[in-house]
Amino acid sequence: MPLMTTTAHVLVVDDDPVVRAVLTACLSRAGYRVDEAEDAAGLKAWLAQGGLDLVVLDVKLPDGDGMALAREVRARGGIGIIMVTERGTPDDRALGLEIGADDYLPKPVYPRELLARVRNVLERRAPLRTGSLLVFGPWRLDPRERRVSDALGRVLDLTPAEFDLLNVLVTRAGRLQSRDQLQDALGAADTDAGPRSIDILISRLRKKLNAPEMIETCRGQGYRFTAAVTRG
């Protein structure tokens, strides 16, 4: 019995058949539609066919560099990318995120962590794939353009980390989110400052939105976005 119901299509790209089998089994049990590719050629064939929602991509492939391939995937628009590799240094991780990967996991990959990362990436990417605007209060959040503006077109000045956090809160409106959940959703690139970074970003967002009541503090538990959200 799947742990969840979803039609998201995930492609696992790794030249190690054992790794592919483990990741595929994990994702399939969670209810995802999963296919495999063992090399760059296989990935490109799937890209040409279309219909992918997320690629779990090994950096080191026999016929191509994973970083370069990630650029090709990113050029396709709304497909999520999670880099999985034995190289887990901060520089490797930063490079992967800079070229457009959504997240970065070192091997060995733990199933529970993989599923959490996959869910987070798919959730963040869903509005981008559909092109939907997220409307709340006087604001319109455009995930494709990474922009928040009001009805007059005035753009809110947000840092990348502030935008990412707001996007997570808005897409999870009404649901209590712990600091750990928010950190996991943002990924390491936005939370290197430590646990307090979430509190600092929340404080900044409240001031910039000029509506502190939109983000409720749930004492000892985390935060909840309270404004009504519609898709425009």
From TrEMBL:
GO terms for cellular component: cytosol; protein-DNA complex. Residues 131-227 bind DNA. InterPro entries: CheY-like_superfamily (IPR011006), OmpR/PhoB-type_DNA-bd (IPR001867), Sig_transdc_resp-reg_C-effctor (IPR016032), Sig_transdc_resp-reg_receiver (IPR001789), WalR-like (IPR039420), WH-like_DNA-bd_sf (IPR036388). Residues 9-122 form the Response regulatory domain. The keyword Zinc does not apply. Pfam families: Response_reg (PF00072), Trans_reg_C (PF00486). Signal peptide: none annotated. GO terms for biological process: regulation of DNA-templated transcription. Residues 131-227 form the OmpR/PhoB-type domain. This is Two-component transcriptional regulator. The modification 4-aspartylphosphate is found at residue 58. Keywords: DNA-binding, Phosphoprotein, Transcription, Transcription regulation, Two-component regulatory system. GO terms for molecular function: phosphorelay response regulator activity; transcription cis-regulatory region binding.
